[in-house]
Design goal:
- By secondary structure, this protein is of the alpha/beta class.
- It has 2 domains: 203 residues, Rossmann fold (3-Layer(aba) Sandwich); 63 residues, no CATH class.
- The protein is built from 10 helices and 8 strands.
- It has an 8-stranded mixed beta sheet with strand order 1-2-4-3-5-6-7-8, sandwiched between helices.
- Helix 9 links the parallel strand 7 and strand 8.
- Helix 1 packs across helix 10 and helix 4 packs antiparallel against helix 7.
- The protein is globular and about 50 Å long.
Length: 278
């Protein structure tokens, strides 16, 4: 499976399909690219190339705690450079939850590179704002405060990542815990700065200024309630809203693979959208 060095990090990725427009399809949370693989393969079979990847600090890609800007900005710059390695043409970007937010961050930082957006399970609201900062950053800051870098490496999330990419452990273990805490706290502050926007991380005025074809598929749990997707579709000019036959559930989070029965219809909708806007 290919690695490509992007901005000093080895990025683990895969492409399904060998012809047609390119779609970068991104997982939610800090999940691996495998979360998107089944849907990506269905879309690729309809005449597209679909790129999936492990973002830096996730999955089998390098863990590098540092660098310019916020972590999500780094993810966007990495993804833009990764896509540009395979095509110089504007491409489609999409994903679920954090993957949708990543796609919108690419749009912010590299607008000319985005042909269209496919946004699933948009995140927003007070529940998500109260839950996600600790999941992304707070728990690891606490681990470093209490147990140093060994404490970080012993967390369940880092154990999984280091098993996939053991070379990152040496880099982590020689890091000053205070520097780790400083960087993660800075990333947490930047994440918190946008957590109460109607669409988490994306200012309303930015959405209202979009001039890019966009499809929105609302979610159905407390972190990705349908109102967040409906709000995004309302704010983005000429956005296409596609609602699955689902209802909101009183659950903190419904894992994306539980949408598996809907993958065929999502693949149909996304393929139609991209054929119309390619």
């Amino acid at each position: 499976m290919p690695y490509l060095k992007i901005h000093s990090a080895q990025i683990y990725h895969e492409i399904y399909g060998d012809q047609g427009p390119l779609l970068a399809l991104n997982s939610g949370g800090r999940h691996r690219y495998l979360e998107m693989a089944p849907l990506a393969k269905l879309i690729a079979a309809k005449g597209f190339r679909v790129l999936v990847h492990d973002r830096r600090n996730t999955g089998a890609s390098d863990i590098i705690i540092g660098g310019p800007g916020g972590e999500e900005d780094q993810w966007a710059d990495d993804l833009h450079a990764l896509v540009r390695h395979y095509t110089t043409e504007a491409s489609f970007y999409g994903g679920s939850s954090a993957g949708a937010r990543l796609s919108m961050t690419v749009k912010r930082r590299h607008p000319q590179a985005v042909q269209g957006l496919l946004l699933m399970r948009v995140t927003g609201g007070a529940f998500a704002a109260g839950r996600l900062p600790n999941i992304y950053y707070g728990q690891f800051i606490k681990a470093a405060q209490e147990g140093g870098m060994q404490g970080v490496c012993d967390t369940e999330a880092y154990r999984e990542r280091l098993a996939l990419h053991p070379a990152s452990k040496e880099r982590l273990m020689v890091m000053d815990p205070q520097e780790y805490i400083r960087v993660m706290s800075s990333w947490l502050d930047q994440f918190n700065s946008g957590k109460y926007y109607p669409v988490m991380g994306i200012p309303q005025a930015e959405l209202e200024a979009y001039q890019v074809p966009t499809m929105v598929v609302p979610g159905n749990d407390k972190t990705h309630s349908s109102v967040n997707g409906l709000t995004a579709a309302r704010l983005i000019p000429n956005a296409e809203l596609f609602c699955l036959p689902i209802e909101d559930q009183d659950l903190d989070l419904i894992p994306f693979p539980q949408w598996a029965e809907h993958y065929p219809v999502l693949a149909d909708q996304f393929a139609d959208f991209m054929h119309r806007h390619a």
